[in-house]
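Whiteboard transcription, Tuesday session. T.W. wrote the structure tokens on the left side:
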């Protein structure tokens, strides 16, 4: 990995480099995606089936597009029982964490007859996109479905590209089943997002779409936003390790590569105050890559978006962390809890040398669907809040409204909204006082 001395110029160059990975910068695909979305909206199933055959080389019909109970039972038999046990353990941890995020409706009353409050209700339906192709991601299935299930969403729909055999990956399907998916459809790509957003004859529309995908999926989610809610427009994965001289170089190198193996656009950055650590980590990453299965992807990722930044002080190192706002941040310093208090922008923070990023990906419980490309400055991890909506509750008795009626009328008339003022005035015009 390249070692760069942290300076104002090197930080600006790094940020510019990272921005190239932002899905919003892939405008050359936008017209293609929009055409697919518009076509599915206009022609429904007919277009959906055509695109599935074109892109996935699988013929689906209204009778085969939805996964059946028999297919689920078959998938459950094919999954290694030990893996099923692990997924169940993971699911319990994820559910326990997200149960703590649930918010209750609340109401405040006053003696003169006002009731103000907030009613929290789940979305009626949610759609989860699960990538297919190169690999199966049952962990993402659990992370997306379980918060919706905890929130109380009645209809949880999963869409995923079918394999060449026309079936859904058994592990993916098993994860969807145990997590609580109510429907599963064999369709992927931008066409699947359009189906969820607008509905077709086979797939009724949903209120919200969540889940990771390629650039076509990301741009499709952007295109349908407003017709439905979405979780985010996620970019490629990224990890940043903040370390001092106390860090274990082997652990740091291994953790950087844990995210770099996702794809060629994944980003791995170490920022440290120790040149010695920087040099050790640079050497170890090359040694590790040689023995790992996805070495070609790893090498391209590290070559393109792998950096080791050497800072003069921990304050400078923390500043660059807050500027980059990484999706995953590991803090491997002498006192990680103290360091953590200075971090304002990060999707998930892993503290200490035994809290490596894959712990969060698979097992600990916090959600691994996180803001990318600097959006941790204003977005949060996926959670129960993503699957609920809140309604304000307002009640005033006549006794409560009368003392403030003149205030409201004056406020409305100051904005020249006389109908607003009149709706208050008419309620008291027959009063003799």
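and on the right, the sequence the group agreed on:
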């Amino acid at each position: 990995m390249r070692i760069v001395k942290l300076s104002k110029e090197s930080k600006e160059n790094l940020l510019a480099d990272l921005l190239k990975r932002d899905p919003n910068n892939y405008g050359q695909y936008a017209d293609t995606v929009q055409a697919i979305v518009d076509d599915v909206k206009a022609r429904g199933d007919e277009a959906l089936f055509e695109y599935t055959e074109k892109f996935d080389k699988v013929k689906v019909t209204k009778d085969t597009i939805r996964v059946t109970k028999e297919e689920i039972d078959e998938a459950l038999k094919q999954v290694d029982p030990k893996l099923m046990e692990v997924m169940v353990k993971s699911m319990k941890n994820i559910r326990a964490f997200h149960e703590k995020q649930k918010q209750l409706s609340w109401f405040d009353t006053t003696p003169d007859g006002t009731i103000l409050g907030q009613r929290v209700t789940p979305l009626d339906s949610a759609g989860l996109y699960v990538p297919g192709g190169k690999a199966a991601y049952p962990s993402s299935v659990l992370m997306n479905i379980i918060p919706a299930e905890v929130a109380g969403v009645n209809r949880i729909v999963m869409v995923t590209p079918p394999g060449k055999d026309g079936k859904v990956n058994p592990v993916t399907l098993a994860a969807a089943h145990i997590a609580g998916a109510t429907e599963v459809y064999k369709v992927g790509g931008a066409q699947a997002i359009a189906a969820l957003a607008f509905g077709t004859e086979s797939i009724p529309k949903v209120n919200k779409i969540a889940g990771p995908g390629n650039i076509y999926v990301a741009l499709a989610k952007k295109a349908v936003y407003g017709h439905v809610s979405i979780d985010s427009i996620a970019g490629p994965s990224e990890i940043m390790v903040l370390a001092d001289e106390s860090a274990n170089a082997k652990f740091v190198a291994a953790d950087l590569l844990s995210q770099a193996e996702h794809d060629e656009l994944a980003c791995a950055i170490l920022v440290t105050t120790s040149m010695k650590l920087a040099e050790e980590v640079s050497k170890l990453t090359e040694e590790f890559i040689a023995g790992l299965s996805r070495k070609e992807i790893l090498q391209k990722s590290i070559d393109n978006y792998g950096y080791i930044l050497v800072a003069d002080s921990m304050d400078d190192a923390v500043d660059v962390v807050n500027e980059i706002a990484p999706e995953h941040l590991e803090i491997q310093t002498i006192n990680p809890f103290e360091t953590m208090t200075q971090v304002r922008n990060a999707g998930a923070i892993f503290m200490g040398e035994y809290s490596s990023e894959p712990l969060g990906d698979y097992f600990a419980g916090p959600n691994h669907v996180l803001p990318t490309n600097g959006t941790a400055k204003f977005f949060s991890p996926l959670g129960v809040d993503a699957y609920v909506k809140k309604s304000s509750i307002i009640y005033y008795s006549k006794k409560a409204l009368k003392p403030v009626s003149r205030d409201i009328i004056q406020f409305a008339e100051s904005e020249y909204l006389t109908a607003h003022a009149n709706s208050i005035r008419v309620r008291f015009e027959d009063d003799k006082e």
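Someone added at the bottom: The first strand starts at residue 2 and ends at 5.
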